[in-house]
Amino acid sequence: MSYRPLPLSCYCGEVPDRILEVGFTSDRNMVIHFWCSSCSRVLFVSKSLEECAQYCPAPDDTAIPLDHAGEDARFLQSLGIACEPE
Ligand SMILES: [Zn+2]
């Protein structure tokens, strides 16, 4: 399985360094809530399921192989949750 990151950027052109929340609306859209530290702005990006499907790589696409443990750690870090080393 491969995955493709969803490109996110602020109106100022900066890529957000922190995603605050990911959720879903009653009209079946995915919403990403993020913070731009460059211009101190809270942004919401909304994607329909059809748009989400368009971002999915083709099954034979040899993009980035999914590293579950690494992705989990990066996701938690993006939410501001750091895993304590044992
Ligand atoms: Zn910005």
How does this structure look, described?
- With 86 residues, this protein is of the alpha+beta class.
- The protein has one domain (2-78).
- It is 21% helix and 31% strand.
- It is built from 2 helices and 5 strands, in the order E-E-E-E-H-E-H.
- The chain has helices at residues 49-55, 68-78, and strands spanning 2-3, 18-24, 29-36, 41-48, 64-65.
- The strands form 2 sheets. It has a 3-stranded antiparallel beta sheet with strand order 2-3-4. A two-stranded antiparallel ribbon has the order 1-5.
- The longest helix has 11 residues, at 68-78.
- It is globular and about 40 Å long.
- The mean pLDDT is 85.
- Zinc ion binds at residues 10, 12, 14, 36, 38-39, 41.
Task: Write the topology of this structure.
Blueprint: E1 2-3, E2 18-24, E3 29-36, E4 41-48, H1 49-55, E5 64-65, H2 68-78
Antiparallel strand pairs: 1-5, 2-3, 3-4
The protein binds zinc ion (ZN).
